[in-house]
Amino acid sequence: VNYEISRKQRLQRKRGGTVRRLFVAIQVDGTYKDDGSGNMVFTPRDREELAQLEALARSAVGIDEERGDRIEIVSRPFVQPEVVPPEEPGLVETLLDRYGRYLETVLWVLLGTVVLMFGVRPLITRLLPGGAAQAVQPQRTAVVVGADGKPLLVHGASGTLVTVDERGQPVVVQAEVPAGEAGAAESRTPAAAGEAKAPQTTAEEDHELVDLDKVAGKVKASLVNEVADILERYPEEAVRVIRSWLHSN
Questions:
Q1: What's phi and psi for 154, nearest 5 deg?
Q2: How many Å separate Cα 70 from the centre of its chain?
Q3: Residue 49 burial (C-beta neighbours within 10 Å; 0-12, 13-18, 19+)
Q4: pLDDT value for 52
Q5: Which residues, including other chains, have CB under 8 Å from residue 72's CB and lie 6 or more apart?
Q6: 52, 144, 177, 205: most buried, per Cβ within 10 A?
């Protein structure tokens, strides 16, 4: 029986890459000296300094002369980048750089003041009891409902009441009351169905009395002017009042 090996199998592992040869080139800058006129003159490095740099590079990269590696080192001037002088900051940049924090603080204070004046203050005024209520000025002229259910025209300052008779003519049903009793007369006046702001009148017009055709008694000129102003500004309301007077008769 023959037990000889009929087949041989070999397995060899190698690295993915191998270095066959190295070629290294090194350029180093030299030195610069002033020539006396303000110009910088380039001076290459001497051979001894270049030899020291070459020895340092040989040991760093692993130069093998038997493998055919080569290394060259020279001293040449590098390209100097153009120096661009920085731009001087303008007035706005200078102010923002120096006083930017103060300006920001002032803006926040102004913003807070606006919010307090137009946001918080009206809200607090509405929430406080009686804050939203404002003093109601006495009505100069208003349309009210009398005890008999008929609409009346009342002069708030004097308390004079004007109505319309069966013929459709205006009639003064309550004369002028003294100034001291004007407040009491207003308190006894029924709630106004509508109000209108009358124009400002002078003291002479307030005390001037005029005679009107088919009107019993004298009527204040200011009252006549206010009635005319109400009829001019609120024609629809005036028509409804007069129509209610006509229907009541």
A1: -115, 140
A2: 73
A3: middle
A4: 94
A5: 24, 25, 26
A6: 144
H helix intervals, the chain = 47-61, 91-115, 121-127, 182-188, 203-207, 221-233, 235-248
Helix axes 235-248, 221-233, angle to 10 degrees: 110
- The pTM (predicted TM-score) of the whole model is 0.31
- Measured CA to CA in angstroms, residue 220 lies from 35, 208, 224, 229 at distances of 110, 6, 7, 14
Calculate the CA dihedral of residues 170, 173, 176, 178 and round it to 10 degrees: -170
The radius of gyration computed from the CA coordinates of the chain, to the nearest angstrom, equals: 55
Given a contact cutoff of 8 angstroms between Cβ atoms, the answer to whether 71 and 57 are in contact is yes
Residues in the chain: 249
Model confidence over 42-55: pLDDT tens digits? 899 999 999 999 99
